[in-house]
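Q: What does the assembled structure look like for these inputs?
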Amino acid sequence: MPGSLEKSGPPILDVRGLCMGIWSGKTELVAVADVSFRAYSGQVVALVGESGAGKSITAMSLTHLLPMPPIKITAGEIRLSGRDMQTQSPKQIRDIRGNEVGIVFQEPMTALNPSLRIWRQIAEPLVRHRRLSWSAAKAQAINLLKKVRIPDAETKAEAYPHQLSGGMRQRVMVAIAISCEPRLIIADEPTTALDVTVQAQILALLTDLTRGLGGALLLITHDLGVVARYADWVNVMYAGRIVETAAADDLYRDGRHPYTHALLASVPKIVGPIAHRLESIAGQPPAPSDGTGGCAFAPRCPRRTERCDERPPLSGDDRTRNGHLFACWNPL
Amino acid sequence: MNDVATNILDVSDLCVDYASTTSFGVTGAPTVRAVKGISLTLQRGETLSLVGESGCGKSTTAMAILQLTPPSGGRVVFDGRDITGFSHRQMRPLRREMQIIYQDPFGSLNPRMTIADLIAEPMAIQGVGRSGNERRAKAAELLDTVGMGTRFLDRYPHQLSGGQRQRVAIARALSLRPKLLICDEPVSALDVSVQAQVLNLFSDLKEQFGLSYLFISHDLGVVRHMSDRVAVMYLGRIVEIATRDDLYGEPLHPYTRILLDAVAVPDPQIERARDHVLLQGEVPSVATPPPGCPFHPRCPSAMPVCSREIPPLRLHGNRQIACHLYDEAAANKTIEAAMDGNGNPN
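A:
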C-alpha cells in the first residue's frame, strides 16, 4: 500500500478547530472539541477511536448530515476544496453531497432504500447531479457495478437490496459513493458488519478507487488493524478530541500518547508473542457529559500526574517529525 | 487422550437441520443442513475455539451441544453422559453444569430485573441457596468476582455499560458453578479497551473455577489469545483443527490461510511485508452448497477432484485437515515410502 504523505496541492478537506455541542434539553454537552485535520489528494486519512469518541459525529458534520438542533457546530471551520461549508445554503449542500462528497455508511441495509432496484439507487445521484437521463444513468450504474466487481452486473442491477448479501450491498454503497467521482469519500465503519474476508475485499476496493479518482478517503473506524493496513495518516480521538495525530508509520512505531499506546496494547493480535494477560485500560471511555477541564484520559491513565488537571495542548517535541502531534504532559 | 473420563465434552458426527421457510414463514420447503457432521472433543480445563465466518455453523453447533436446538444426527456426550436428544426437562439438572454467554449483553438480560435478581435467577430456578437473602449474598459475591462492586446490585441493565452488562452475564452464568462455559462471541460488541478487560476476566475465571471453555468467535486475534486448540469451520464443517500454535504458526488448509491473511495486523510495517491474497467471492449459502469440497469455488489451490469429492477430515501430523491437497501429499509420501522399501537408492 503506497503511503502518500506528499501534499499535492491544497487540501481537499481542511477542518480547523471544530467544536460541536449537543443540546440535552438542560445543558449543552461537548461532543467534539477543537478538532483539526486535513486530507490531501490520494490520501487515506483515518479517524480512530472507541465508541463515543466523536468520530462519526465529526464525519457526519462535514456534509451537514446531523440534526441541527440538537447538534450544533459551536466553533471552527470546515473547508471542502477551499469552500467554507458553513456558509453554504441547504441547496448548495445538497449539490455537494453525493456529488463532491461520497459517503459509505456502516449498515448498507438501512442506508439503501429497500423498495428501489439497485440500479435506480446508483443512478439517482447521476440524474440529480450530472443531469443524465434515466436510461443513460442506468447504463452508467451497470458500469459502476462492474467497477465495484459485482459479478453478473446486468442481473444484479435489477435486484432489490434484500436479495443481495451483506458484502454485495456494501459494494453497491461504494458504487453509489463513487458514482459522481467525488473528491472526498467518507467511509464510516464501512466493514464493521462484514466478515473478515469480505472486509478485506471492500477496503481494498475503496482505497484503490479513491486513489484512482485522485480523491481523499476519510476512514472512520475502531479497528487498528484496518488503519495500519490502509491509512496514510491517523488521528486518534478520545472523548471528542484528537489526542494524537501522525503518519501511520510514526504513530504505530513511536506513538507518544498513553491512550494510543494502551489501545494498541489491548488488541489481541494474530502475530507476535502471546501475553498471558492483555494490557487493558481500566474503566471505560467517558460520556460527553463528563467534560472536565483537564486531560479526559487522566482518570484511566497510568502516567497521570497533578499537571493532568490542566488540559495538555496538541503539540510535538524534538523526537516527533512530519507533523506528528500529541496531547500529553507525560508522553511515552 | 480421547479417554471419556478426561473429556468434558465429546461430540461426534453432529448434524443439525433447519426447515427452510419461504418469505411468508410457510414451512414445507426442503430442509437445510446447517451443521454437517462435526466431531470434536474438549478436555477438562481446555479452551477450544470455533472460528469461521457468518453462517458457517459455529453458533448452531453450540446450540445443538446444549440441546437448545435438537440435533438431527450424531452424538453429544457431556461429562461421560450421552445427552443427545434430551428433553428440556431432562436437560434441566444438567444446565447447572453447562452455561452459555451470548454476544449481546443488551439482549440477554431482562431489562425489568435488577442486577441482583438477574444473577440470582438461575440459582432460584435450580433451587440453589436456602433463601432469597442467601442468593442475594451469593450474587454480591459473584459481582465482586467479575470485578464489579456490590453497589450495582440494585441497578437495572440499562444503567450499565456494555462491558458491565457482559460481566453481569458472566456472573449469572457462573452462579451455578458450571463445568463448561460456552461463550458465543462474548466480546464482539465491546470496545477494544473493554474487550481486553473481559478477556482477562475469562482467563482468571478459568483458573479460579477450573472451567472448560468452548469459545466461539470470528475474531482471529481474540481466538489466538484465548485458545489451546482451534477448529476452523466453513459451511457447516470443520476444515482444520489444530493446537493454537500449530494453526497460527503454519496454517495448512487454504481457507485457514486466507482467513488469517485477511486479518489486518495493527502494524503498518508488518502489513506492507505481507502479501495479501484476496479471497474471491463470498461464502455460499448453506442451502445450496457447491458440490465436492465446499470451499473449492473460492480456493486458489483447487484441483479437479475438489469439485467432485468432499474431502474427509483426516489426521495430518498433529492436526486434522479436510483438504485434498493433503490427501495427495499423503498419497505421494506413501508412494515414496514404497519405492524406498523396494530398495531404490536415493
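Chain B touches chain A through 43 residues (CB under 8 Å).
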